[in-house]
TrEMBL record:
Species of provenance: Rotaria socialis
Source organism superkingdom: Eukaryota
InterPro entries: DUF4371 (IPR025398), RNaseH-like_sf (IPR012337)
Species classification: Eukaryota, Metazoa, Spiralia, Gnathifera, Rotifera
Annotated protein name in UniProt: DUF4371 domain-containing protein
SUPFAM superfamilies hit by this protein: Ribonuclease H-like (SSF53098)
Region (Disordered): 14-45, 67-122
Pfam families reported in the protein's UniProt record: DUF4371
Residue ranges with Low complexity bias: 67-111
Domain DUF4371: 198-374
Length: 689
């Protein structure tokens, strides 16, 4: 045991700088060397002391090498385990500590000093004095700072940890022995190279998780499956995509089996963080632009809750127009007051100033556009610059609805189209028959489209399929002969349905082109009204006999190719003489005149005034003046300049001078919006003015 004692004594007498510089101290015991007191033998063992390890490991390992106490060569055996003593000391009958060379007795650790003397704040001298007592780990009610406090459970996790009641700090017992103060403010974050490497690997793996989530969100795919356990054949898109990526990504393959960062709560949290990041970027762009408009629309979701979707429209410093969707808001009330309060609250949450709101766009419902109680009127009270514009796409949709509502024959024939979709697409058998008939004819297989209830311009696609595959549809109904099929077949094989099919296809084709133009984000109000005027003029050009003859002849050709009986002449009814009949009774219309006057002209005379009347709502004086200022070479008169300056609270004199400078540089050019934008940027008018 003398060698062990010498090694321990040598360790505690080492120079402090040497202890700091060396990462480890090695103690080697003699292999199978008997103790001098005749005790057992020391097994071969190499002991390492790391500055981050518990010193008690070293003491216990050395003491476990032989039974009995660690004593000097001249010490006498005690009947009970005793302390390590000096060469002249006598052993005690009770356990003790390391004593000085002149010490004759030992004392238990608890009797050597009070708790305040063992406090870690006293430094290394006290730590070495109470080395066998181990770390100072008091059990008390720890003070709370910023809702955080020391936890006594850490004692069992970190055996080297000790707590100072005096300084309310945590200390490392080994560091206090080695370095003197044993103090560090970030003791709990000390990690070795392995921990740093693992942290870097976890971050890299988390990046791959985020990339996978971004892909699924971008594609609009569901994340989870019905069963996500290890034996499931399909664990959902998220886990299956990770498994696919792991085939050529070693990092994912290594961590996927541990299911790190794959819990649905983590998925939702990452999605929420991505949403916040995207929204922050959009709002920063909008704030830099300063002025913005809002577009709102409400709908009922699948859970029967009313949701209001919100879009903001703004222009960047290069005059590029952006329309960005920024979220849904659920509402329990659809009144103008409730929706306006919801919109104001939402803009406040997004930190968008109401005084910078220059436009608002909704549908034509009374709760939105009402002159006194609608959202537009209420919002103008707090945002005076917010001009209300009725959604052009919604206006066009209302015009097409008017045609169906006011012309009974159009409404009846659209009912036939709806029944045709339900009959063929509602049965897998009939749908397969329809597909096979098309393939046998060497045609591309098309499906009958459903009538869209919200976008009537999309009905053109439905009518187009019926026109292209009329023969195959008739054959399908004849093959799948059922009672409903016979009734529908009789309706299809009628001249009335066929001529309505040609007329409405032409009208919906024209309005569909207009609808696509109105959906461009960078279209101006003037450009939109120009497109509307072109469409109306085109519809007016159809209102003549030659155009009707074209539709009538096409309908007759389709009837002849399918052996459909042409329309019969309308039977002339003789009016009794007492009702004004007789030889002077007016002659009845023939079939062609009936379809020309009562059907064809009636449809056109319904849709043309509807488009003109409803789009006139958006002929706004202030917007027309703005476009006249920037797009036309004509100067605004004093009244027009005064109206603009009052509306936007700008200087009348400055506006008058800047207009003249702009028009002079314009040099009698007449430009559209895109040309004016390029002109303003090239001449830096957006900076100078």
């Amino acid at each position: 045991m003398s060698k062990t004692n010498n090694l321990l004594t040598k360790y505690f007498k080492r120079d402090k700088k040497k202890v700091i510089n060396e990462s480890t101290t090695e103690l080697t015991t003699a292999a199978d060397e008997p103790n001098e007191d005749g005790g057992g033998s020391c097994s071969p063992k190499r002991l390492k002391l790391d500055k981050n390890n518990d010193l008690s490991i070293l003491i216990c390992s050395a003491a476990a090498a032989a039974p009995g106490p660690l004593t000097s060569p001249t010490s006498t055996r005690s009947t009970t385990p005793g302390p390590i003593t000096s060469p002249t000391s006598t052993s005690s009958t009770t356990p003790g500590l390391l004593t000085s060379p002149t010490s004759t007795s030992s004392t238990t650790p608890t009797s050597l000093a009070s708790h305040s003397e063992r406090d870690p704040s006293h430094g290394s001298a006290v730590a070495k004095k109470f080395i066998f007592a181990g770390p100072y780990q008091p059990d008390l009610k720890f003070p709370t700072v910023d809702h955080r406090h020391f936890c006594r459970q850490w004692y069992s996790i970190y055996s080297w940890l000790e707590y100072s009641k005096i300084k309310d700090r945590a200390f490392c017992f080994i560091c206090r022995l080695s370095y003197g103060t044993g103090k560090t403010d970030d003791w709990f974050s000390l990690t070795d190279k392995q921990h740093a490497k693992q942290a870097a690997e976890n971050r890299a793996y988390l990046v791959e998780i985020i990339r996978t989530i971004v892909f699924l969100c971008k594609q609009g795919l569901a994340f989870r499956g019905h069963r996500e356990h290890g034996q499931s054949f399909n664990k959902g898109d998220f886990l299956e995509l990770l498994a696919l990526r792991s085939l050529d990504n070693p990092l994912i393959k290594k961590n996927l089996n541990t299911l790190k960062f794959t819990d649905h709560k983590i998925q939702n949290e990452i999605i929420e963080l991505l949403q916040q990041k995207i929204l922050t970027k959009i709002l920063n762009e909008c704030r830099r632009a300063k002025y913005y408009s809002v577009m709102n629309d409400e709908t009922t979701d699948i859970s029967c809750h009313e949701q209001v979707s919100s879009v903001i429209r703004y222009v960047d410093d290069k005059l590029n127009v952006f329309e960005k969707f920024v979220g849904f808001e659920r509402t329990a009330s659809m009144t103008g007051e409730a929706l306006c309060a919801l919109l104001i609250k939402w803009l406040s949450k997004l930190d968008l100033k109401l005084e910078n709101l220059v436009g608002q766009c909704y549908d034509g419902g009374s709760n939105m556009r009402g002159e006194y109680q609608g959202v537009s009127a209420r919002l103008r009270q707090v945002a005076s610059l917010g001009i209300y514009v009725h959604c052009n796409g919604h206006i066009l949709n209302l015009c097409l609805i008017d045609v169906s509502a006011r012309v009974p024959s159009v409404r009846n024939n659209f009912g036939v189209v709806s029944s045709l979709y339900n009959l063929i697409e509602g049965s897998a058998k009939r749908q397969q028959v329809f597909e096979n008939i098309q393939k046998e004819a060497g045609l591309q297989a098309l499906t009958v489209k459903q009538l869209c209830e919200t976008r009537w311009t999309c009905r053109f696609e439905c009518l187009k399929v019926i026109l292209l595959r009329f023969n195959e549809i008739v054959t399908t109904l004849e093959v799948t002969a059922i009672s409903d099929g016979f009734l529908l077949l009789n309706s299809l094989q009628s001249f009335d349905f066929i001529i309505h099919l040609f007329i409405m296809s032409e009208i919906y084709l024209l309005t569909n082109v207009l609808s696509k133009s109105l959906h461009y984000s960078n279209i101006s109000l003037t450009d939109a009204l120009v497109q509307v005027k072109i469409t109306v003029d085109t519809l007016k050009s159809l209102r003549n006999e030659p155009e009707f003859e074209r539709f009538y002849s096409e309908a007759m050709k389709l009837c002849d190719s399918n052996d459909i009986v042409p329309p019969k002449e309308i039977r002339k009814k003789k009016v009794p003489a007492r009702f004004g009949g007789g030889v002077d009774a007016p002659a009845a219309l023939n079939v062609k005149d009936h379809y020309r006057i009562n059907i064809y002209y009636t449809i056109l005379d319904t849709i043309i005034p509807a488009i003109n009347g409803k789009f006139d709502e958006n002929v706004l004086d202030i917007v027309i003046l703005m476009e006249k200022l920037f797009l036309n070479k004509e100067l605004l008169n004093d009244n027009e300049i005064q109206e603009l300056s009052q509306h936007y609270s700008i200087s009348y004199d400055d506006l008058k001078v800047e207009q003249r400078l702009y028009k002079t540089k314009m040099n009698d050019q007449k430009m559209n919006l895109s040309q004016a934008t390029k002109f303003i940027l090239e001449n830096n008018f957006h900076i100078a003015f």
